[in-house]
Amino acid sequence: MIDTRTAPYAALLLRVTLGGVFLAHAALKLFLFTPAGTAKFFASLGLPAELAYVTMAAEIIGGLALIAGFRTRIVALALTPILLGAIVLVHGSAGFFFNNANGGWEYPAFWIVALVAQALLGDGAYALGSSRDNEVKLKLAAASSR
User: Fold this and answer.
1) Spatial distance between the Cα atoms of 78 and 76, rounded to a whole number of angstroms
2) Does residue 55 fall inside a structural domain?
3) Does any domain span residue 1?
4) For residue range 6-33, what is the model confidence (pLDDT) as tens digits?
5) Counting beta carbons within 10 angstroms of the beta carbon of residue 8, is it exposed (0 to 12), middle (13 to 18) or buried (19 or more)?
6) Cβ–Cβ under 8 Å, residues 117 and 96
């Protein structure tokens, strides 16, 4: 049984954590690997170098949107292709465990599951999207009771 009193706070905790991890990964690409270095890495995988900039932008915008609770369900699902790409193109050949050389696919796979769980849970507490979503639900409930 779901505890409806605490579930919104669980969704909040998951949402803010996921957003923070996306921001951390974007910062890694920006400040440690550098945008140019990240673009070269993407090109070495056979991807367009420009996709590195799109990925960094998606991680920053998506991370901030998750933290704020803006369109949480859509953002969580929209970020999953980045991680699927990481599994297929980078980590998949390294085996399952992330402590393997070049990192395995364990962590990105878990991250995908967490994003899907967030999409299923929704915004949670203290989200920009919550009041609007609740307003729509109230209007639908009022209309169906007539």
Assistant:
1) 6
2) yes
3) no
4) 999 999 999 999 999 999 999 999 999 9
5) middle
6) no
Count of CB atoms within 10 A of residue 134's CB? 11
Distance CA 15, CA 124 (A): 8
Percent of the chain topping pLDDT 70: 88
HEC per residue, the chain: CCCCCCHHHHHHHHHHHHHHHHHHHHHHHHHHCCHHHHHHHHHHCCCCCHHHHHHHHHHHHHHHHHHHCCCHHHHHHHHHHHHHHHHHHHHHHHCCCCCCCCCCCHHHHHHHHHHHHHHHHCCCCCCHHHHHHHHHHHHHHHHHCC
Q: Is residue 53 part of a domain?
A: yes
Whether 138 has a pLDDT exceeding 90, the answer reads no
* Number of structural domains in the chain: 1
pTM of the predicted model as reported, rounded to 2 decimal places:
0.86
2 lies in some domain: no
Q: State which residues form the domain around 138.
A: 7-144
Burial per residue of 40-56, b for 16 or more beta-carbon CB atoms within 10 angstroms, e otherwise = eebeeeeeeeebbbebb
